[in-house]
Amino acid sequence: MLETGAKGCQELTVTKEDTAVVHKSGTLKVLATPRMAALMEETAWKSVADDLEPGMGTVGIRLELDHLAPTPIGMKVQCESVLEKVEGRKLTFSIMAKDEKGIIGKAVHERFVIEEEKFQSKADQKNG
After folding, report:
1. At residue 54, what are phi and psi to the nearest 5 degrees?
2. What does the DSSP 8-state code read for residue 5?
3. N or C end of the chain: which has fewer CB within 10 A?
4. Residue 41 falls in the annotated catalytic set
5. Residue 15 maps to which CATH number?
6. Active-site residue 117, yes or no?
């Protein structure tokens, strides 16, 4: 059973592959917003993964993200999530990302608990 208050933490050091120019979200060599979003989702799902029944997982259903400051290549980013609300199978997280100089992003992220095989099978059926 998932309970509010569960916390997660992930880190990355920004590389060329994490930049806006590589992710096609801009022309600068700074942490791309899509890459920060992926780090935030990773931090959230990993924070609850071990508390789920075998065969269960979570999928992202909503991400409200503010990218507040740039982070250059070579700088470390730390991302922290807190499970704020559990409503049946819907989970709501607050997430904050910081680099070595301060806060760079904040988000509210919702995930839904799913049965992985059933979900994958349903997705695969879209191919015909």
Report:
1. -55, 140
2. T
3. C
4. yes
5. 3.10.129.10
6. no
